[in-house]
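Let's sit down with a protein and look at its sequence and fold side by side. Which protein we use is up to you, so please pick one and set it down. Label the sequence line and the structure token line clearly, so we can match residues to local backbone shapes. Go ahead whenever you are ready, and we will take it from there:

***
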Amino acid sequence: MRAMGAEWVEIVEPRTKEHMYANLVTGECVWDLPHGVAVKHATEDQWWELFDDKSKRFYYYNAPSQKTVWHRPEGADIVPLSKLQTMKNNKGVGGEVKTRNRRSLNSKGNKTTSSTTTTGSSMGANLSRGMTTSGSSDEENMPASRNSYEQHKKRQRTSRNNRVSKDETDFARRSNGSETKQQQKPAGDWTISTSGGGAAGHASLDSNESRPKQAKLNMTAPGRVEEEVSANNTITNIDDVKMRHKKTNQTLPKRVSNLSKSQSCPSAPNRPMSSSTRTHSKSSRKLEEVKDITSFAKSNLNVHKRGLLRKKVTIHTMLSWTRDPIRKPMIMTKDKHVKKDACEVFRLIQAFMGDRKVKRNAETLAHDIITRGWQLPDLRDEIFIQLCRQTTTNPKADSLKLGFELLCMCLTFFPPSSKFHSYLEGYIYTHLDSEDQDGVQISHYANISFKRLSKIIQTGAKRGKKKPTADEVAQSQRSIFNPSMFGNLLQEVMDNQAEKFPDLKLPWVLTNLAEQVLRLDGHQTEGIFRVPGDIDDVNFLKVQIDQYQTPDNLRDPHVPGSLLKLWFRELEDPLIPAEFYDECVENYNDEELAIDVINKLPEINRLCISYLIRFLQVFAQSHHSQKTKMDASNLAMVMAPNCLRCQSDDPRIIFENTRKEMSYIRTLIQYYETDFMEGMM
């Protein structure tokens, strides 16, 4: 078994491969190795020895493989980084580490001042509260009364810090399903911690962990010649240090190690990870990409008070289910209309979820809530955060189910603001892998909500002058478990209609709308497919079609024509899949190659595009185009964006490909033989 003999060791950050050097005797850390010193270079066989205060055991972490084990690896190079923990905590297995901090009493003001002696830039980022040295500390010679006073102040600070950190971490642990209690500590220049997962942050090795997790080193860059030391001889929180430096016009070094960003490593083999922990860790990785709703709450929520003493309501309580009404909006606002409607909407939400008894039925309550959000954009974020609150720690299964349903329904008609979008997305992300709760399929509701959120952000709120109808609201609720024919995959549309139309080889919505256009003499109507139908009539027809119904009072062919284009445009995957897009735009003028692309498509896509082309060929006939003013080029111009989707974000490429997309559809209209579709027309 090999041990590290050199005082200086090389540490390599696993992700960025950046090298740094630490002196295990003095605690110094530098980016550039001092001249003429011996150093033990990092190898694939290097393991970091760390100490877990919970189990009072050492454990070992291998940076190249990101593996953590309890047993000491045989034949490995061991870097005793537990010494760095000992220096940081000023205590540990090896006993107390003495410091070089010097204290002096101001005789006039009877105040204690603290300073740290340094010896140049190499002392920049000490790993402990003080350097190991021979001799006694000045603190040992202080009067007993002064030591008692310092201990009293230390207890006060600890109590205050615990109260501040509790409210900030309690909700994050609860919302991520974590039952592990974590103890937060002030961060020094070096913090050796384990990735706990979730929004509550990273737990220190001194926390109540039952198994080792990935080691992380948060290191301030060397070169700093002055350290902030608190009155109780401990390094203060780094945020406080930055604030003090800012006030004194001193700048902190910008170079910081990225070692804290290492990926999670496996647990020790003899302590397997539970299924709940695996789910929790998966959610945590997703949350790194979005924002946590608690961050929004800290800076945007109103201050609410309650009780005779008017005690402030904590953020955790503000974001947790309640049966009580609210007396003012959750989100700060100056809009008088929002202030009035917010409290009323909260009562309506409670009534819809069954938490408040009213005489109105659930359908009218949902319609009222959605109408208010659709008509008043400034109220939308308030509605969404109220729904997030009422679906968090909700003890009643029926109430929880209706709360998630209402969230899905609202996302059908209006989006959150750009400011709140990422936070709502983060809230939904935390429930994507949630287990069922008393029969409530939380993960299903979360997936539907996320899908609708992604769509509504792109399309915007429901269009039209008329407010959402009761039928539209009811359809948005039914489609949660009975998928709509709009906005899904072609195969999903076919699967949904299989029970009603088992022998139909094409989507019923496609053939029905095409027949409606022809029945209303669309091939004799000027501007067909170019002139949009009335948006409210289109929305009404969409609800009817989604229920496999065709209204008898249709008079305008532009209405089914517009809805047909909308159906193609809202398909989850384009009619011509993205993997065939480049081949289409490259061969837009070659009729043989253009048709070859159609023959390569999946069967359902091939049949749908063939049906559409045959349908358009009817309108492209000269005796029809003379009346409609829609020849092959004009038809291709309005239909190409509904069949092909450019995957590039470059405006120049999009502009150039628009012409090629139109030319490709025009080539199909002019040269594609669709006689084999005769029986399906």
